[in-house]
TrEMBL record:
Keywords: Receptor, Signal. SUPFAM superfamilies: Periplasmic binding protein-like II (SSF53850). It comes from Ancylobacter aquaticus. PANTHER family: BLR1237 PROTEIN, TRICARBOXYLATE-BINDING PROTEIN. Pfam families: TctC. This is Tripartite-type tricarboxylate transporter receptor subunit TctC. InterPro entries: BUG, Bug_dom1. Belongs to the UPF0065 (bug) family. Residues 1-26 form the signal peptide.
Length: 336
């Protein structure tokens, strides 16, 4: 019988040991706190929902979920950070629908297909003005915009975000030229409007609710196709009823989180299970109702299908408007 060299025996032992240890490590996940990097500033819906979900997820994961705001570059700073970390499930991206346009905007090289998406909640968009604004109705606002093309400033979150696209849709549908100004999230965009830096803001009714109730903002209407009723706010009219072309640019808000698509399958299974339980958390639902958010609880194939369709529609819209920086065709994003 030929005896193996000592190095061969040692190598074999190492391989056997690794095969025994590696699965145990995966089974033990998570063994340390999870870091959730939110792309936008504190105070907006993405930040709020990620902090609510972190609290709801912790009992099911058995570790802390620490939320960190990493703003800048229309989401690129947070995306680059998460993508550059080990893809082991310990690093999450606090995300929103703006992530579906980062590729066409040249903010990040990844596309929707490269991540796993967890859609927690969302709310309709609202066009709001400071409470002391001379604009009392949508017609007042549009009359001023038509009288001074490109001079009426409207703040919104990052270029390519749903609120940017809602602004583009509003301008196109109403035949106006609005000066759309991006901010690093809805919170600073609303502050800009309340301080008089801009004449109006487009963000979610959820994000605006406390300022409307507190007498600092006034909604002129929803940048949507239908009227909706909200506790504490009453009925808000859908601007799309009078301007049906508003629907020509399909965009809806979602907020939640994502992990790189190549996170190990057994870790994903645990995240999925915790997510399914967390979105049913009574405290999460109570706060979501109070903040005028609708819980979606969508993940896996369902979220991938919806968000790839959104990526296609929004990317080509931005490219056709000459706002996009990278031709979607070169990104293998099919035209809808």
């Amino acid at each position: 019988m030929i005896s193996r060299p000592s190095w061969a025996r040692a190598l074999a032992g190492t391989v056997i040991a690794f095969s025994l240890v590696a699965p145990v490590h995966a089974q033990d996940w998570p063994t340390r706190p999870i870091e959730d990097s939110v792309w936008s500033s504190a105070g907006g819906a993405t930040d709020l929902v990620n902090r609510l979900m972190a609290k709801a997820l912790e009992p099911h994961l058995g570790v802390k979920v620490n939320v960190v705001n990493r703003t800048g570059g229309g989401g690129a700073v947070a995306m680059n950070y998460v993508w550059s970390q080990p893809h082991n499930g310990n690093y999450w991206l606090g995300a929103s629908e703006g992530m579906q346009t980062t590729a066409v905007m040249g903010f990040h090289t990844t596309k929707t297909k490269d991540w796993r998406w967890y859609m927690v909640a969302g709310a309709p968009g609202s066009l709001a003005v400071p409470v002391n604004s001379p604009f009392k109705t949508v017609d007042d606002f549009l009359a001023a915009a038509k009288a001074s093309p490109g001079k009426v400033n409207v703040s919104h979150s990052a270029l390519g975000s749903v609120w940017h696209l809602k602004g583009v849709a509003l301008a196109n549908a109403t035949g106006t030229q609005l000066n759309l100004i991006p901010y690093e999230g809805s919170a600073p965009a609303m502050v800009a409007a309340m301080s008089g830096e801009t004449a109006a803001v487009i963000s979610s009714v959820s994000e605006q609710a406390e300022y409307i109730k507190g007498g600092r903002l006034r909604s002129l209407g929803l940048v949507e196709m239908t009227d909706q009723e909200f506790p504490g706010l009453g009925k808000l009219s859908g601007i799309g009823k009078a301007y049906p072309k508003l629907k020509d640019i399909p965009a809806r808000q979602w907020v939640g989180f994502a992990v790189p698509g190549d996170v190990p399958a057994d870790v994903v299974t645990k995240i999925d299970a915790a997510f399914d339980l967390a979105v049913k958390d009574p405290e999460l639902k109570k706060i979501a109702d109070d903040k005028l958010l609708t819980i979606f609880g969508t993940r896996g194939d369902a979220s991938m299908k919806e968000l790839q369709e959104m990526e296609s529609a929004l990317s080509w819209t931005l490219w056709d408007l000459k706002v996009g920086k990278v031709d979607p065709a070169t990104l293998d994003i099919a035209r809808p």
